[in-house]
Request: fold
Amino acid sequence: MAKTIIIGSDHGGFNLKKHLVAVLESWGMNVLDMGPDCAESCDYPEFAASVAKKAANGEGLGILICGTGLGMSITANRFPGVRATVCTNEFMARMARAHNDANVLCLGERVIGIGVAEGIVKAYLETEFEGDRHKRRIDLIETVSK
Ligand code: RB5
Reply:
């Protein structure tokens, strides 16, 4: 299981972030909370950038939460080396890691409940990248987008 989690949200994802920080710490993870510190209205790109830069740098796996997960994933994927995926169920979370080597998980607090979110995070953290043909495809993402 990955050991360091870099987490961030906007106001739309603040409550789920707070909950997941406590859950992750109870699982023995080292959690780096990039904010915000309160549920006041704020702009998701700022927090997506803070988490994306660290995830791209290999400092840990990222988790970004907004209302839908969409704005976070759009922003995070602008950073070279980031593969951010919105996941709404455990199957997507497992595939995001096993096939896409995703390094930033995006969640929507207004889309999924707390129990589903916990299951998604657990599946995401427990699943390893399978490499092989999936590595070739991930490398191709860089090539075709140049
Ligand atoms: C904020 O209202 C909302 O737009 C944001 O949390 C997110 O869902 C954007 O993608």
